[in-house]
C-alpha cells in the first residue's frame, strides 16, 4: 500500500506583522514536509477585511524568504476562494448538515445573559435547529439568517494530538457553530476545513490557541466526507517577561532580525529549539534539523524567547561560516555604515577581515562595524582607552615603531618580526606597544592580533594613524 504523501501548511492572518512566535508555526510544518519529502503550502487567511493589509502579507512573504522557508504551492488567498466556499456550503445545506437561524443578536445576547445568571455556559440553544416533530418559530420578515452547522448532540469528539496527546470534547458542550454570516460570507472554521480538504493537507501543525477550534473542524471534515488531518498543537512562545509573544507585548517583526544582522540558519536553529529538541544538541545546521525533525520530540511546555541566547547561537553560526560567504553577507551592512562600495571592491580584504573578526562578533552588524574601520579615512577613538594607553611614555615607543613600519615588507609575518625587534630595542613588553597601536589604528585597545590588523589596514593608513597622536 502506497503511503500518503505528507502535505503541511502555514496559514497566517495578515492582520499585523509576523513575529518569531508566528514564524515558529511555519518552521515546524515546513521542516516536517521537508523531512518527509512532502509539500509545504502557504495560505493567507485574509477574510478579516477590516484588519488585513498588503503590508502584513509582504512581511510574511519577505520573512519566510529570508529564513528560506520555501513553499511548494501558494500563496493562496482565502478571499479569492469565496465562490468555492459558497459551493461547498450549498452542498452541506442540501444534505441537511446546515440550517438557517433567524435569531437576532439582541435575542442571542438576552439568551446568554439569562444563561450566565443561571450559572450556565453561554451558548446557542438550538431554537432554529430542525428536528423530527419539532415546530420551528415563524420566519421573521426582512431578516437574513446566519447558517449554523448541526453539531452532534451526544457522544465525544477527540483526536490524538501529536504534541499534547489524546484530547476529547463532549459534543454536548459544543453549540451549533455559525458557518455563514447573514450576507452569505463563510466564517473562519468552515473556510479552513474546505481549504485543508481541497489542498489535501495531511498534517495540521499550528499554535495551541487553535485547540478549541479543532473539535468543530473535525465535525465539519466529517460532514464533508473528508479525511481528518493529523493535528499537532504547539505550545505558546513567551517573551522574555513570560507573557505570550505579541506585537502588543513588544515583539519585533521577523524582518527586523534580518536588519539587525542575524543569520537565517541561526534563526532557524534557535527557533527550532523553542519547542523541539534532538537530545542535547544546541547548534546544528539547517540540513541536520531537517534530517532529525519529527513530531515525536515536540515539547509540551511553552518556549521562552531569550535574546542573549539567540545572539550566542548566531555567534556560533558566524564562526562556522566560510569567510568569503560571510564577507558577502556583511558587505551591505558595511555600505550602510557609510563606506563607499568601490572601496570595498578595490581589493579582497573584506574576506580576510571577516575571517579575523568573526570570532568576536554576535551579529553581522557587529562584524560590519569592525570592517568599516578598515575603509574609513577617520575613526572615532575610545576616549578612555586613549587616555590610558596613548601616554607621554608611549610617544618615543610609537615613533620608533612608525619608523620601522615605513620600510618593513608589508605582510603579517614581517610586521610581526618588526614588532618583536622594536620591543627588544626599546626594552618593553608587548602590551606597552600593542595597546597604544591598537587605539591609534582601530580606536580601541581590544582587537585581534596586531600584526594581522596592521597588514589589513595597509601601510599608508597605519602610518597616518600612528602620527595622529
UniProtKB/TrEMBL annotation:
Q: Which residues form the signal peptide?
A: none
What Enzyme Commission number(s) appear in the record? 6.1.1.17
Per UniProt, the keywords (alphabetical) are:
Aminoacyl-tRNA synthetase, ATP-binding, Cytoplasm, Ligase, Nucleotide-binding, Protein biosynthesis
Q: Where is this motif: 'KMSKS' region?
A: 244-248
One GO term (biological process): glutamyl-tRNA aminoacylation
Its cellular-component GO annotations read: cytosol
Question: Where found, per UniProt?
Answer: Cytoplasm
Pfam families listed in its UniProt record? Anticodon_2, tRNA-synt_1c
UniProt enzyme class: ligase
Q: Which reaction does it catalyse?
A: tRNA(Glu) + L-glutamate + ATP = L-glutamyl-tRNA(Glu) + AMP + diphosphate
Which residues hold ATP?
247
Domain Aminoacyl-tRNA synthetase class I anticodon-binding spans what residues?
Answer: 325-467
- Highest taxon of the source? Bacteria
The answer to keyword Iron-sulfur applying to this record is: no
What PANTHER family does the database record attribute to this sequence?
A: GLUTAMATE--TRNA LIGASE (PTHR43311), GLUTAMATE--TRNA LIGASE, MITOCHONDRIAL-RELATED (PTHR43311:SF2)
* Family indicated by similarity: Belongs to the class-I aminoacyl-tRNA synthetase family. Glutamate--tRNA ligase type 1 subfamily.
Function, as annotated, reads: Catalyzes the attachment of glutamate to tRNA(Glu) in a two-step reaction: glutamate is first activated by ATP to form Glu-AMP and then transferred to the acceptor end of tRNA(Glu).
* The protein's name: Glutamate--tRNA ligase
Q: Which organism is it from?
A: Diaphorobacter aerolatus
Q: Which gene encodes it?
A: gltX
Amino acid at each position: 500500500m502506497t503511503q500518503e504523501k505528507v502535505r503541511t501548511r502555514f496559514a497566517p492572518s495578515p492582520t499585523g506583522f509576523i513575529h518569531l512566535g508566528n514564524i515558529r508555526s511555519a518552521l515546524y510544518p515546513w521542516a516536517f514536509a521537508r523531512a518527509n519529502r512532502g509539500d509545504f503550502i502557504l495560505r493567507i487567511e485574509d477574510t478579516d477585511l477590516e484588519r488585513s493589509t498588503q503590508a502584513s502579507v509582504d512581511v510574511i512573504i519577505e520573512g519566510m524568504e529570508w529564513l528560506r522557508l520555501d513553499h511548494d504551492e501558494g500563496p493562496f488567498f482565502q478571499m479569492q476562494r469565496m465562490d468555492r466556499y459558497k459551493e461547498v456550503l450549498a452542498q452541506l445545506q442540501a444534505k441537511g448538515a446546515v440550517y438557517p437561524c433567524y435569531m437576532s443578536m439582541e435575542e442571542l445576547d438576552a439568551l446568554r445573559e439569562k444563561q450566565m445568571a443561571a450559572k450556565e455556559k453561554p451558548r446557542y440553544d438550538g431554537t432554529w435547529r430542525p428536528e423530527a416533530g419539532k415546530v420551528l418559530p415563524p420566519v421573521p420578515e426582512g431578516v437574513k439568517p446566519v447558517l449554523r452547522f448541526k453539531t452532534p448532540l451526544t457522544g465525544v469528539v477527540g483526536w490524538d494530538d501529536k504534541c499534547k496527546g489524546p484530547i476529547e470534547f463532549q459534543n454536548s458542550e459544543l453549540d451549533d457553530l455559525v458557518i455563514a454570516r447573514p450576507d452569505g460570507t463563510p466564517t473562519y472554521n468552515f473556510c479552513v476545513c474546505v481549504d485543508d480538504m481541497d489542498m489535501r493537507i495531511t498534517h495540521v501543525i499550528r499554535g495551541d490557541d487553535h485547540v478549541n477550534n479543532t473539535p468543530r473542524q473535525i465535525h465539519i471534515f466529517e460532514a464533508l466526507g473528508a479525511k481528518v488531518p493529523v493535528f499537532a498543537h504547539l505550545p505558546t512562545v513567551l517573551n522574555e517577561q513570560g507573557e505570550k509573544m505579541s506585537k502588543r507585548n513588544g515583539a519585533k517583526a521577523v524582518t527586523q532580525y534580518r536588519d539587525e544582522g542575524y543569520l537565517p540558519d541561526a534563526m532557524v536553529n534557535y527557533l527550532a529549539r523553542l519547542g523541539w529538541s534532538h537530545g542535547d544538541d544546541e547548534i546544528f545546521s539547517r540540513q541536520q534539523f531537517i534530517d532529525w525533525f519529527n513530531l515525536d520530540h515536540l515539547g509540551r511546555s511553552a518556549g521562552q524567547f531569550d535574546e542573549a541566547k539567540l545572539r550566542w547561537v548566531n555567534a556560533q553560526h558566524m564562526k562556522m561560516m566560510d569567510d568569503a560567504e560571510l564577507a558577502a553577507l556583511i558587505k551591505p551592512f558595511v555600505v550602510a555604515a557609510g563606506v563607499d562600495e568601490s572601496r570595498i571592491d578595490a581589493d579582497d580584504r573584506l574576506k580576510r577581515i571577516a575571517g579575523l573578526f568573526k570570532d568576536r562578533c554576535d551579529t553581522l552588524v557587529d562584524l560590519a562595524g569592525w570592517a568599516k574601520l578598515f575603509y574609513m579615512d577617520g575613526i572615532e577613538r575610545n576616549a578612555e582607552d586613549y587616555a590610558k594607553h596613548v601616554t607621554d611614555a608611549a610617544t618615543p615607543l610609537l615613533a620608533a615603531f612608525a619608523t620601522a613600519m615605513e620600510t618593513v615588507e608589508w605582510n603579517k609575518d614581517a610586521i610581526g618580526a618588526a614588532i618583536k625587534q622594536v620591543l627588544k630595542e626599546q626594552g618593553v613588553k608587548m602590551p606597552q606597544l600593542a595597546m597604544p597601536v591598537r587605539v591609534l589604528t582601530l580606536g580601541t585597545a581590544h582587537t585581534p592580533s596586531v600584526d594581522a590588523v596592521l597588514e589589513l589596514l595597509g601601510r599608508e593608513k597605519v602610518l597616518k594613524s600612528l602620527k595622529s597622536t
